[in-house]
Amino acid sequence: MDLKPRTRVWRDGRLEKENFPADQISDYLAEPDTVVWLDLCAPDSDGLALISDELGLSPLAVEDAVSGHERPKLDRYDGHLFLNAYSVRLSDDGTQVDKHEISAFITDRALVTVRMDEGFDLDGLLKRWDGSPDLAEYGVAYLLHGLLDLIVDGHFEAVQALDDKIDDLEEDLFADHLPATQQRMYRLRKSLALLRRVVLPMREVVNTLLRRDLKVVPAPMGPYFQDVYDHVLRATEWTDSLRDTVTSLQETRIALQGNHLNLVMKKLTGWAAVIAVPTAITGFYGENVPYPGFGKHWGFVSSIVVLLVTGVALYAVFRKRDWL
């Protein structure tokens, strides 16, 4: 195990002790009216072996917890539930999403969280729990609500930040910064796709927890979990809406590039026409055949006049039609 485990124990809804040795968990669970939390960061199978034996955790759930890269889910095993989810955080430039996996074993009187790295905001989770001590009497449901509420709020904040970035992208789309805009658009679309894979399964996770047959959420905690579920739905719908918006922006960008190319081709064609007529005239006068004014000074002057008049006339016509 890479980092020291974090522990807490509540008795009768009041925080009694924290950061005690993990091997004392079984002693606290043997006492009545206690609820225990244990956090492990980047453990291996051996690191979970002791806790697995004490809490009777399924080997399949333990394997999922240490293997990493599992999809967000809630699995039901004999005697406990296994939760897998991801917290997200935007990069400094606000266009890329960093995700951090966290798993949880949920029993009647214990919550064991397993983090794959230190990216998860554990201090923020403790503040959530400490900020609502009146709910501590509901035991594991109180701990689980704080965990899910923190994760889902992080999803919501990420979606909101990406929405602001897309608004900025809409303003820059019509500016003359197409290559840079295209790169940002690609990164935003990639971030939204990743965020959707993280957010969408959470709808099923929270909805399953609200089922009465699981008996995980007591009636007084129901509205709190329902509020989390509403946030999940809003984040999911918002993510889908932003994906559609980015798709529309990409289509608009392609249309703008097509219009820009047509404008360039129109101008090139106009200039080619302006140059073609004088070229034809000079080519004709370059023939070694007699023509009006051949070998005369006034013939040379007339050819220059014809060149200038036709060139200016074509330029004026094309300019009037907005071809140049």
UniProtKB/TrEMBL annotation:
Protein name: Magnesium transporter CorA family protein
Coiled-coil segments on the chain, per record: none
Keyword Transmembrane helix (UniProt): yes
Principal subcellular localisation of the protein: membrane
Top-level taxon of the source organism: Bacteria
Localization (cell): Cell membrane
Species, as recorded: Actinoallomurus spadix
TM region positions: 268-286, 298-318
CDD domains associated with the record: TmCorA-like
